[in-house]
Amino acid sequence: MNVEEFKASKKMPLVVVLDDVRSMYNVGSVFRTADAFRIEKICLCGITAQPPHAEIHKTALGAEETVEWHHFATAEEAVSSLQAQGFFVYSIEQCEGSTMLQNLQIDPARGYAIVLGHEVKGVKQAVVDLCDGCLEIPQFGTKHSLNVSTTAGMVIWEFAKQMIIQ
Question: Taking the domain 3-163, which CATH number applies?
Answer without folding.
Answer: 3.40.1280.10
